[in-house]
Design a protein that fits this description.
CATH class of the largest domain: Mainly Alpha
CATH architecture of the largest domain: Orthogonal Bundle
Number of strands: 0
Distance between the termini: 31 Å
Shape: elongated
Helix content: 55-70%
Length: about 220
């Protein structure tokens, strides 16, 4: 989902400092897109579980092995995953905690406690409350699902270190702001806090010399 041009202009007017960062970073691309557009909601959450607290290369290797346990290189559907032995899943590289989390996700989908096909009908807070009931899913993972899988435009992942670092650069601060400070600062960005977060993430990727007065 993409915000309309009027909303972007309004965001830029409300925060000239963010507007300067937006001029230095890629345009907000809208979500879902790319791989996430082809990935089911179930797969998206399962991948988030696998990737937690792992370096990208290691996580990618484990994710490929887990997907290889299904047919056609796709993640086994919930009923099929529940039929796999622990030894098979552990053999793919999953820790005991992540194995338990994937099984909990599959069980909730299989018995109907979690309905991902209709979850978009809920509000952001309701979706977060629903997803954090799944073992291994915390608020940050739920917020990433909201932004990248459902395309919600007004999500502020205030505990995200990348967004915190982006605000540090934006404001020229010596230290990263706390989640509470970031949350308060983000009030001016509503209803496009996901868009602001995107530009703060991208701001951290710029060579320091190109940030100019932003650092």
């Amino acid at each position: 989902m993409l915000p309309d041009a009027r909303s972007i202009r309004s965001l830029r007017r409300r925060d000239p400092l963010l507007a300067a960062a937006m001029d230095r970073t890629p345009a907000f691309p809208g979500f879902p897109g790319g791989e996430r557009l082809r990935m089911s909601r179930y797969e998206s959450i399962a991948k988030a579980i696998v990737f937690q607290q792992l370096a990208g290369k290691a996580a990618s290797t484990i994710w490929k092995r887990v997907r290889a346990l299904g047919s056609n290189g796709r993640l086994p559907a919930p009923p099929a995953l529940l039929q796999l032995a622990d030894e098979e899943l552990r053999g793919a590289g999953l820790s005991r905690a992540k194995l338990a989390a994937l099984r909990d996700l599959a069980e909730r989908l299989d018995d109907g406690r979690l309905a991902l096909r209709s979850i978009q009908r809920l509000g952001d807070d309701e979706i977060i409350e629903t997803l954090v009931q799944v073992r291994g899913i915390g608020p940050w993972t739920a917020q990433m699902f909201l932004i990248f899988q459902l395309g919600r435009l007004d999500v502020m992942p205030s505990a995200d270190l990348g967004v915190q670092e982006g605000l540090r650069i934006l404001e020229g601060l010596a230290e990263r702001p706390s989640p509470a400070e970031l949350q308060a600062r983000a009030e001016v960005w509503g209803p496009l806090r996901s868009v602001a977060s995107w530009h703060l993430w991208r701001l951290t990727e710029l060579p320091k010399e190109t940030t100019g007065g932003l650092d």
